[in-house]
Design a protein that fits this description.
Blueprint (H helix, E strand, L loop, with lengths): L13 H5 L3 E4 L15 H4 L8 H9 L1 H21 L28 H23 L9 H25 L23 H4 L21 E3 L6 H12 L8 H19 L2 E7 L7 E7 L3 H13 L2 E2 L27 E2 L9 E2 L4 E2 L5 E2 L9 H4 L5 E17 L3 E16 L1
Parallel strand pairs: 2-4, 5-6
Antiparallel strand pairs: 1-11, 3-4, 7-8, 9-11, 10-11
InterPro entries: Wnt, Wnt10, Wnt_C, Wnt_CS
Main location: secreted
GO molecular function: cytokine activity; frizzled binding
C-alpha cells in the first residue's frame, strides 16, 4: 500500500520567534485590515454606540474624518495612561474595545482628572485629523493641487539659479546639457510660456508672483491643516449653543485649552532643494507637534489646574479661587469644580478601578510610592511575571498595535 507523509508548514524564522507577540489594543472600530480600509457610513458610523444625533450626521457626511478623529481618541487614551501612570486614577477606565470613552462617568464629573482627560481627548482629535489631512487621507481637505503647484515653482527656481550660476562661470557652456539632473525630463512641467524657450530665456527676472522664491526659504509642501482639525474637534466634542451649567462650561473650556496646546506648538519643517545634495533654497511647511509633547504640557497644567466656583449663573464666566490675593488668568489653564475622590477603592460611579493590585515603588516619595498608591492598606512583595504593552504603533486606520513585553521580577503590589 502506498503511504505518504503530510506536508508540514516550514518553521517560522528564528527572528520571528524572538520577537514579542503583537496585541491589538484600544480598538474602537474593529477595522484591522490590510491596507487602507474603505471608510463608509456603514463601516464607521453604524459601529459606534452612543453617538448623538449631531455626531451621527457628521459621521454620515464625513466617515473618513470621523475615523481619523477616533484614532485621535485612541492616541489620547494611550497618552493619558502614560502621563498619569503614577497616579491613583491612571486613565485605564477610559479604554475599552468597541467603546467610545466620551460617555464615561468621570468625563461627566468636575474633577481635576476629568479636566485633563477632556483636554487631551480634544487635542487628540484635532491633532489626528490635521495630520491625516496633510497625508491626503481625507477627501474633505488636503493640498494635492498646491503640492503640484509647488513642484512647478521649485523646478522653475532651480532652473533659474543654475543658469545664473552657469552664466557667471563664463561663456561657451552648453546651458541645455548643464541643467541640474533634477530638471531632466521636466520641461513639460514648466509654465507654458517657458516650455519652448531656450534655457537662456530663464535668466530673465521671475514674474512678481514668484519673486518671493529669491528668499532662502519659502512656505510650501503640505502643512498639517490644524484649522480643519480644530474645527472638526470643536464640532464633534463641544456642545452647541450657550452652556447651560457649570459642567458644560468646564467641558468647552478644557476642550479649547487642549486644542490650543496643539496649535501653539506647531513647528516648521523644511526640505532642501538643489543639485548634488546642495541646499540652494528650502521649502517649509507646518507640522503638528509630537503628541508626547502635548501630553507633557497638559500634565503640567493638570498639576496646577484651577478650582472654580460652582455657582450656576449660566453666564459662561468662571469665578476662580484667588491665590495670594490674586486671580490667575484662566484662558489657557485647566479648570475643575469638584474635589477629586481618593480613587482608592473600586467605584463604578466615578470610573475608579481602585488601586488593589497596583505595582508601587517602596523607595519613592512621590505619587507612585507604596504609601500613596496603596492608600494605607500596605503592600506585598511578590515575584511576578507580567505582560505590558510596549512599542505601540498607530495604524491608519484606525487601530493600535502593540508588542506584548513580559517581565519576571520582584515587585511591590498594593493589598
Amino acid at each position: 500500500p502506498l503511504s505518504f507523509t503530510p506536508l508540514l508548514p516550514p518553521p517560522p524564522p528564528l527572528h520571528s520567534l524572538l520577537r514579542p507577540p503583537l496585541v491589538l489594543c484600544n480598538d474602537i472600530l474593529s477595522l484591522k485590515v490590510a491596507g487602507d480600509p474603505v471608510l463608509t457610513p456603514n463601516s464607521v458610523c453604524l459601529r459606534l454606540a452612543g453617538l448623538s444625533k449631531r455626531q451621527m450626521r457628521m459621521c454620515v457626511r464625513n466617515p473618513d474624518v470621523t475615523a481619523s478623529a477616533l484614532q485621535g481618541i485612541q492616541v489620547a487614551i494611550h497618552e493619558c495612561q502614560h502621563q498619569l501612570r503614577d497616579q491613583r486614577w491612571n486613565c485605564s477606565s477610559l479604554e475599552g474595545f468597541g467603546k467610545l470613552p466620551l460617555h464615561n462617568s468621570i468625563l461627566n464629573r468636575g474633577f481635576r482628572e476629568s479636566a485633563f482627560s477632556l483636554a487631551l481627548l480634544a487635542a487628540g482629535v484635532a491633532h489626528s485629523v490635521a495630520s491625516a489631512c496633510s497625508m491626503g487621507k481625507l477627501r474633505g481637505c488636503g493640498c494635492e493641487a498646491k503640492r503640484r503647484q509647488d513642484d512647478d515653482k521649485i523646478r522653475l527656481k532651480l532652473t533659474q539659479l543654475q543658469l545664473q550660476t552657469l552664466q557667471k562661470g563664463g561663456a561657451g557652456i552648453d546651458l541645455t546639457r548643464s541643467l541640474p539632473s533634477e530638471l531632466n525630463g521636466h520641461r513639460g512641467s514648466l509654465p507654458t510660456n517657458l516650455r519652448s524657450a531656450h534655457p537662456s530665456a530663464l535668466l530673465k527676472p521671475l514674474p512678481d508672483e514668484l519673486s518671493s522664491m529669491q528668499d532662502t526659504w519659502e512656505w510650501g509642501g503640505c502643512s498639517h491643516d490644524i484649522r480643519f482639525g480644530d474645527r472638526f474637534s470643536r464640532d464633534w466634542l463641544d456642545s452647541r449653543g450657550s452652556p447651560r451649567d457649570i459642567h458644560a462650561r468646564m467641558r468647552i473650556h478644557n476642550n479649547r485649552v487642549g486644542r490650543q496646546i496643539v496649535t501653539d506648538n506647531m513647528t516648521r519643517k523644511c526640505k532642501c532643494h538643489g543639485t548634488s545634495g546642495s541646499c540652494q533654497f528650502k521649502t517649509c511647511w507646518h507640522v503638528s507637534p509630537e503628541f508626547r509633547l502635548v501630553g507633557s504640557i497638559l500634565k503640567e497644567k493638570f498639576l496646577t489646574a484651577i478650582f472654580v466656583n460652582s455657582q450656576n449663573k449660566n453666564n459662561g464666566v468662571f469665578n476662580p479661587r484667588t491665590e495670594n490675593g490674586r486671580r490667575r488668568i484662566m484662558s489657557r489653564e485647566l479648570v475643575y469644580f469638584e474635589k477629586s475622590p481618593d480613587f482608592c477603592e473600586h467605584d463604578v460611579s466615578i470610573d475608579s478601578p481602585g488601586t488593589h493590585g497596583r505595582i508601587c515603588n517602596k523607595t519613592s516619595y512621590s505619587t507612585d510610592s507604596c504609601s500613596s498608591l496603596c492608600c494605607g492598606r500596605g503592600h506585598n512583595i511578590l515575584k511576578q511575571t507580567r505582560s505590558e504593552r510596549c512599542n505601540c504603533r498607530f495604524h491608519w486606520c484606525c487601530y493600535v498595535l502593540c508588542e506584548e513585553c513580559r517581565h519576571t521580577e520582584w515587585v511591590n503590589v498594593c493589598k
